[in-house]
Amino acid sequence: MSATNTDPRPKASASRRHRLAERGIDTQLLMLIPALLFGLLLFVYPFTYGIGLTFQPLPRTQEQWGGGVFANYVAFFKDPFLFDSVWITMRLALPVALFNVLVSVPIAFKLRHRFRGKRLLSTLLVLPITLGTVLTAQGLLIFGGRQGWVNRFLMEAGIIDQPFPIVNNYLGVMLSLIISGFPFAFLLISSYLSGIDPAIEAAAKTLGANWKQRFRRIILPLLAPGLATTFILTFVLAFSVFPSARLVGDALGETRVMALMAYRAFGEQQDYAMASTIAIMMGVVELVVIAVVLLWRSFLYKGTTGGKG
Amino acid sequence: MAITPMVESAPEPGPARKGGRKPYAKPSRPPGERALIASPGTWFVWAGIAAFFIFLFGIISSVVVDSFGKPWFDTWLPETFTLDWYTGAWERFNLSQIVLVTLGASFTVVVLSILIGVPAAYVLARRDFPFKKLVTVLFLLPVLMPPITYGIPLATVMYNFGLGRTVLAVILVNLVPSVPFVILTMTPFIEQINPAIENAARMSGANMRRVFTRILAPLLVPGILAAAILVLVRTVGMFELTYLVSGPTSDTLVVAIYRAMTSSGGGEARQLVSSMGVLYTAMMLTILVVALRFVNPTQLVARVKESRDD
Questions:
Q1: Domains of chain B: which residue ranges?
Q2: CATH code of domain B87-309
Q3: Residue range A221-266, pLDDT digits in tens
Q4: Could you tell me if the ipTM is greater than 0.95?
Q5: Which long-range contacts (CB under 8 A, 24 or more apart) does B215-221 make?
Q6: Which residues 29-88 of B have a C-beta within 8 angstroms of A?
């Protein structure tokens, strides 16, 4: 209350401080320093170091593939064992991300109103987060394995007479990605939906728009940016899949994803240069997909719809 | 999905009601209003949810049953139930140390990322300064990139500095996604706090530190709690980054489970892995149950929305 500022500040530096402050620089910015230091030391430095490393291929890579300092990249694009992993990853991550988003929309749309047990449902949907990829994999292996409950049920019901291969293939990885990614997509889309002002839809209703028209003309355009964001986030989650591709997938065959190849180069072959190359190509591929989605999104309505985005 | 059939007959609202819930194509309804009967769309929604939960509970309960069952081969349920797998796994994998490392490293990451992230989020939310865009991109990149992309170069640097396989490396590596995460969630949260409150405190002579401790901290507590819990869950569950730098003495629980599942020679006994998995889920569940008492998962986003309105 009576705390008056009696700090006798030196007047000489005041003007300089003023000039800097007018450009937005003053002592408050010091609070940014720990975060900046962190960013530079733990992100920028290792990352540039990694990019540098990709141009220092091991002698054996150079001998096999040629190309001088670009040997790692030559190897990446020419070695079918490596390059095919790009398609394998895309074939897994894109359908999963699309599925998660497209299935979440009608479900979130149906469940956006208040109903009994809504809180229970959203609590249950958080459960998969507690499982983590490794445990989901273990559960799928037991639940969907040859002796698992699914096959046992299907066989005793007489639907199939041979155990249906659910795990150790593409389907297993896909299921595990859906189980971990779907709740996330659902929660995000629900919160985007709740950000759309119900008055807009009510207005359309009074003007005689039916359910399909309202969805097509009102909800979808307003939701589209949120859909793009959700798609990107679930895609990122599915794209860097690694444990489940190894555990419930077919690690040398149809689920030989890029992340797996990067780890193999890093851990088993100790070829840090090659590992960095694959890792950085992974980032490039992912950024391309994100850029395409964002480009598409830039053609859409850009006002505020509430929600975050 | 639900397509209302065309109505051709004359509108006779009264007597048709007899058939129970059948006012499907009733012209008496206001235009655009849907019938109450379960449409194919509703069936689709509930079937989808049911399928999802059947799988989810199947996965969870088969792991739990597996971890308690003694011999479980080709029957619906194991013959007897026992706790042996838990005691076995505890000794076999030195779990007390692993749990200690997991919790210790995770809490350190939480505290550090809050301490680093919140002041930065404050500056980003309140101030305009040169190169602000660049700084924002710097904090956005680790969130957008797949963890492996920066993880492998980072791990290489760690090994070069002789930090490989230490707990310190595990902590540092996990900070990389956590700090930007705190900054990104806290910035909109701080934006919603009315700056007039801080200005009033400054007018009354409070310096920056007192503004932070007396004014901002109490207002920020819900946001910080939410961010802290999310970081904690992410760090405990983080596999990709931790796996790259951890070793036998610094493995977190997830990594230990993975190593047990893939160890050379066909992996450990399945039941031992299952019991570790149950332990992991129990730990996560405890954290989340405590967390849900403080924050609602959708609230973090919704709260931002409310702030944008005014």
A1: 40-82, 87-309
A2: 1.10.3720.10
A3: 888 888 888 898 889 888 887 888 888 888 787 888 888 889 888 8
A4: no
A5: B216/B122, B216/B190, B219/B193, B220/B118, B220/B186, B220/B189, B220/B190, B220/B193
A6: 30-34, 41-42, 44-45, 48-49, 52-53, 55-56, 58-60, 62-63, 66, 73-74, 76
